[in-house]
Specification:
Layout (H helix, E strand, L loop, with lengths): L1 E12 L5 H6 L1 E11 L2 H6 L8 H12 L6 H15 L5 E9 L9 E9 L1
Antiparallel strand pairs: 1-2, 2-3, 3-4
């Protein structure tokens, strides 16, 4: 079993409960960790034998482009899309951080972390 991580993915998106957030948008940082059997690719050195990092990124990007009110909802959509597109994955951990959230005070970020295991 192996772990593949895509860390610090940056997206500009329009998620949030406030109308202004859905109009002006903000920056989000995502960390994705997947558990997958890497035994064959460790020996073969062939892309076809592993989970394609670029395809994973594109899957996340597609879901980030769809507006949502809640980070929890975005996270669930990303988990579901990854599970559907990459059935060989045995586990997923995802963290989504919204930078500079409109909380009425100075705050670096607010985050949601979720996971799924087979």
């Amino acid at each position: 079993m192996g772990t593949i991580l895509l860390e610090g993915m940056e997206f500009f998106a329009f998620h949030g409960c406030f109308k202004e957030e859905q109009i002006i948008g903000t920056k989000f940082i995502l960390d994705l960790q997947i558990e997958v059997n890497t035994t064959i690719s460790e020996q073969s050195d062939h892309l076809k034998d592993t989970t394609d990092y670029v395809a994973l990124y594109k899957c996340v990007k597609k879901e980030m482009e769809q507006k949502s009110h809640l980070l929890e909802h975005v996270a669930r959509r990303i988990l579901d899309a990854i599970r559907l597109e990459f059935p060989a994955i045995n586990g997923i951990e995802l963290k989504i951080a919204k930078l500079n959230p409109p909380m009425g005070g100075k705050m670096q970020q607010v985050s949601v972390k979720t996971q799924w295991k087979k």
